[in-house]
Amino acid sequence: MPGPEPAAWRRLALTTGISGLACFVMIFASLIAGSAHEPDFRGSAEEVQVFLRSVSSPLHEVRAFVLVLGIVTFLWFSVSLAVILRRAEGDPPWRSAIAAASGLLLVALTLVGSWEAATLRAVDIDPQVARYAFDLGNATFANAWLALGSFAVSAGWVIISTGVVARWLGWWALASGVGLILARAVWTSEVWLLPYGLFWVWVIVLSVVLVMGRVRWPGERASTLVREGEALD
């Protein structure tokens, strides 16, 4: 008879939750530290040049390192969550596989499309070159919303259909994921901030749920039903 989840699965849930909280702290701490004087997506070449010069410092290199570390930690979170969802989903595990692939794509886009390289030559960089690097990084960031939305939609879908955690978390993920996908169509406006913020709050809440161990493992549910049936007999 299937029994309660083994200790390995409990450790996986704990690791996933800690990774989610850690990546949030590192990513947003680095973003907030480097957001001074940052222009919006439509900033002029001169504004972008001033911004890149303002962040070109040894402290910025530390901030950039923390950001990359946070992004890689998100990969831990997304893949670990996909493994949990795969157990709940059963065969064929196509939605959890899409969630894992989407998390990997998000990390790849974020790391490759960064405008961090422009800060190395910010002292004498041409304004037009600065704006091109800045726009390329922002456009790649906007494309990453599609990967982030795909991750949220596929993860939310599994949560809703299986109840591996509270189903309202699944609807939350689904709503933020659809919002991120739609925001790509109008990426130069600030409407993206709403689904983006909703997604990261979802990551925090889900991570706390996982750390607390509030996961409905399939084997545990089956075992509970067996024990209830034996009690009735």
Please indicate the count of domains: 1
How many strands, what sense, and barrel or not for the largest sheet?
none
Q: Output mean pLDDT.
A: 84
Shape, per Cα inertia axes? elongated
Q: Unreliable segments (pLDDT under 50, ≥5 consecutive)?
A: 222-233
Give the tally of β-strands: 0
Put simply, the count of helices is 8
| Fraction of residues in helix | over 70%
Radius of gyration: 21 Å
Topology:
Elements: H1 7-33, H2 45-55, H3 58-89, H4 94-112, H5 127-162, H6 167-183, H7 193-211, H8 218-232
Helix pairs in contact: 1-3, 1-7, 2-5, 3-4, 3-5, 4-5, 5-6, 6-7
Account of the protein in words:
With 233 residues, the protein is an all-alpha fold. The protein has one domain. Helix content is 76%, strand content 0%. It has eight helices and no strands. Helix 1 runs antiparallel to helix 3. The radius of gyration is 21 Å and the shape is elongated.
What is shown here, in short?
This protein has 233 residues and is mainly alpha-helical. Helix content is 76%, strand content 0%. It has helices spanning 7-33, 45-55, 58-89, 94-112, 127-162, 167-183, 193-211, 218-232.
Give short descriptive properties of this protein.
233 residues; disordered C terminus; mainly alpha; elongated
